[in-house]
TrEMBL record, chains A, B:
This is Glutamate decarboxylase 1. Homodimer. It is an enzyme of class 4 (lyase). It comes from Anolis carolinensis (Green anole). GO terms for biological process: carboxylic acid metabolic process. InterPro entries: PyrdxlP-dep_de-COase, PyrdxlP-dep_Trfase, PyrdxlP-dep_Trfase_major, Pyridoxal-P_BS.
Length: 539, 539
């Protein structure tokens, strides 16, 4: 597929060109308009200089090359294609053949722009490849992609109904649907799509603070007791990060112990709440995680909710990763109790396969977001508009301009239906179960925690031949710690697959396998296992 | 142009179809792969249900309709096309003919998906229309659009070099170039692209706080003196919003008086700093605006920088709107002194015509962002990777996942060169000058402030016949206050053009005209003026 800018009034020859249907079939054309606005549009495209614009555009008349988006998609779906073609930063910075990242004063030729586009993809990472397992967000949903292309073509801003009427309503409807799926019965909840789970979690803390101490908005943190937040030691680092940003301080983000499966120990939560109160702190907020980043653990929400009710604390559920399971009647019981939360983070760009970014913060109670963030900017949120201004979303947000993240998600939902999401999520979980059953009893592998995974996270060590049978010792742990990084480095250099690893608490580096791309199959799981063995056999 | 998902192994007939070249010319095709991965890809696209996938995909075989992206672009460039087709929220929610926003359990037909896409554009607002003047971000740069399509196809995440090697380097190079243009001579500055100017401004306050009071990160705002921030009464509301979010409190965001042109009065700044110190507050940060939202005013940066140096305060320049003028040798003097700032917000998605979103926060000193936001998440930012991990950007950000906002901007810069941006920015400023000269002496219009605009903002009242010659009075002001909203409502209903209005301080509702779309011409300015007169003549 080519990106072919072009054509124009002088370009009628295009329709009579001798290029084949097959060539056309592989073309993506952004065609220019055959009317008097042509020159202006050239200007818009190419720097407002008609001469440059015509020069660059004109080139296209003879251009038959320059396909890259379609072949990229095609290649990405092929197992034989590498996931990446690894280069070190200094190599790319020095400039690969014909690909120079530096910017200059003068325009590049159109040929060069095409090369730039092609090489940008060539030296990138194919996150849509069925063997890319490196992140919680993988895959490339074609309907989602089409949605994102339409979104960029519409190029508008979510802050007002005035300039994004359809998208604003789609957001409202989708958020309501998500609240229903969470199990909140009140129609009047709230929410907003934000640029990622970390920001969604930040919103949840801001909402809690505003609900209990609205004076912070005007008087700051100095005006209230020393507030503390609780989250598990396995929870996402964004809770701590938000604690730092919002003026709580990371020391006032208290980490709760987890059991061997990475789930919060409710007794430890209650003990730490009591301890904080005794020391004169004011407990405010508890984050329960539904699907931790590394273990994929689900905190026991009902037990945590009981404690929150007892001590009158805000309960947030970070379901950025696990929220997708709410779509599955088979798996949603893992989030039982989520309907008792005051707020929920849920990232459709993770387990639901929506393109990056698509993250929602959902609130049970209406009005808090608005109260918390409202600044009543007169130039945007005029009170005397002709439409119902309660549809303007800008005063709820910490952003001013806000990208349209809703359309790709909405369109996917329309195309798949709730049942489509359910099927695709169930499939990913089955693949993880397959992996778990495949490796759990083999001497080449050691599981990081016992028992079947609850989410698609399968955490394991690969034990190279040299370490098999060696009893646990500091030396063995040190050696084992170096295995995963070595295999990962070899994997990236060979470009065959990608999977994450990390140390965690007292555990040395282990692999964290996750599946969120429904294009993956059992053969891809088999391949990953074989590849780890191949790359690790001499370690 | 159609979005045509499709094809597949059974679809060889496509190449022999009888559709004309012209039809092909108008097609955008996302073609499926003719290999064994086809079914899986269908699954990815259509809910992981082969049957549904095939059903939807298969429909495409006969589909000749369904073009919408290209006609949308074509129409948008035509003056005869309406800027919008206005409907009230309740109208769209009740469902327009065949267009239902509600989500359901089961997949929609492919025909319906196409209708949904077409209607999404139909009932939206054409922000790329040359007569859309409603926001600071307007226009639709075709190279930028191509860049955004490639970005969504690559669908990756900026947090690590590991999965976004090319984009991470492009960001680094572009930020360095922007710092050079600001005039910072030290090679080792810093910066990051963020989801909008409000978040960029928030970063600047966090950076200032971390530089002067790093203990806030761990101990919170309670551990430090009562910090205060200074910004002008004409500055963007995001400074106050960030003050609320970060725990300063809006009362501790002190507003400095402006002169009649909307520029900070340095003497008032100094007086308020002294007053705050006397009251026991600790002044931390001053925001100077380069291009205010409403008046387009440029604060006198040198004079403000002198005061900041004298009192050892962090100087931030919010050049979200005005930053583009740095690209123009004719206009960059308006930002003289910006090289003395500690941090700068600069939104290429405003005056440089990049698609939404593209906003940079730039810092003169390296290391502050990292120090401020670093949480060292082991699962993402492993210390034992095989590449130079200083290229990972995630620990600088308040986000975890971060959308790729750089590519569209980088590609535009390659295609236009610095000179291309300069030409297009100069053109927009010339159009504003044309508007100013056209209306400044006419009895139908009254300027909100005297003198030539510095940016493209032209602020004016339209004086309807009934108010002409009437001396200033409460009654006249009340009547005048209602004029702009009435004209705006009529304008939106007729769909011919869009321009913003607002009250400001003691000024009743006035129009704020801005030009940031280089596709606009003098005829569009003429049209706007005539349209306001036409719609307002009976008021």
């Amino acid at each position: 597929m080519a990106i072919q800018y072009l054509a124009g009034p002088r370009q009628t020859s295009f329709a009579n060109s001798t290029s084949t249907h097959a060539t056309h079939f592989n073309h993506l054309r952004i065609a220019m308009v055959r009317d008097s606005a042509y020159d202006t549009w050239c200007g818009v495209a190419h720097g407002c200089t008609k001469k440059i614009g015509l020069k660059i555009c004109g080139k296209w008349k003879e251009e038959k090359e320059g396909h890259f988006l379609l072949p990229f998609l095609e290649d990405t779906s092929r197992r034989s294609t590498k996931v990446l073609d690894f280069h070190h930063p200094h190599q790319l910075l020095e400039g690969m053949e014909g690909f120079n990242l530096e910017l200059s004063d003068n325009p590049e030729s159109l040929e060069q722009i095409l090369v730039d586009c092609r090489d940008t993809l060539k030296y990138g990472v194919r996150t849509g490849h069925p063997r890319f397992f490196n992140q919680l967000s993988t895959g490339l949903d074609i309907i989602g992609l089409a949605g994102e292309w339409l979104t960029s073509t519409a190029n508008t801003n979510m802050f007002t109904y005035e300039i994004a009427p359809v998208f604003v309503l789609m957001e409202q409807i989708t958020l309501r649907k998500m609240r229903e799926i969470i199990g909140w019965t009140d129609k009047d909840g709230d929410g907003i799509f934000s640029p990622g789970g970390a920001i969604s979690n930040m919103y949840s803390i801001m909402a809690a603070r505003y609900k209990y101490y609205p004076e912070v908005k005007t008087k700051g943190m100095a005006a209230v007791p020393k507030l503390v937040l609780f989250t598990s030691e396995h929870s996402h680092y964004s809770i701590k990060k938000a604690g730092a940003a919002l003026g709580f301080g990371t020391e006032n983000v208290i980490l709760i112990k987890c059991n061997e499966r990475g789930k919060i120990i409710p007794a430890d939560l209650e003990a730490k709440i009591l301890d904080a109160k005794q020391k004169g702190y004011a407990p405010l907020y508890v984050n329960a995680t539904a699907g931790t980043t590394v273990y994929g653990a689900f905190d026991p929400i009902h037990e945590i909710a009981d404690i929150c009710e007892k001590y009158n604390l805000w309960l947030h559920v970070d379901a950025a990763w696990g929220g997708g399971l709410l779509m599955s009647s088979k798996h949603r019981h893992k989030l039982n109790g989520i309907e008792r939360a005051n707020s929920v983070t849920w990232n459709p760009h993770k387990m639901m396969g929506v393109l990056l970014q698509c993250s929602a913060i959902l609130l049970r109670e209406k009005g808090i977001l608005q109260g918390c963030n409202q600044m009543c900017a007169g130039y945007l949120f005029q009170q005397d508009k002709q439409y119902d201004i309660t549809y303007d979303t800008g005063d709820k947000a910490i952003q001013c301009g806000r990208h349209v993240d809703i359309f790709k998600f909405w369109l996917m939902w329309k195309a798949k239906g709730t049942v489509g999401f359910e099927t695709q999520i169930n499939k990913c979980l089955e693949l993880s179960e397959y992996l778990y059953n495949k490796i759990k009893n083999r001497e080449e592998f050691e599981m990081v925690f016992k028992g079947e995974p609850e989410h698609t996270n399968v955490c394991f060590w690969y034990i190279p031949p040299s370490l098999r049978g060696m009893p646990d010792s500091e030396e063995r742990r040190e050696k084992l710690h170096r295995v995963a990084p070595k295999i990962k480095a070899l994997m990236m250099e060979s470009g065959t697959t990608m999977v994450g690893y990390q140390p965690h608490a007292d555990k040395v580096n282990f692999f964290r396998m996750v599946v969120s791309n429904p294009a993956a199959t059992k053969s891809d799981i088999d391949f990953l296992v074989e590849e780890i063995e191949r790359l690790g056999q001499d370690l």
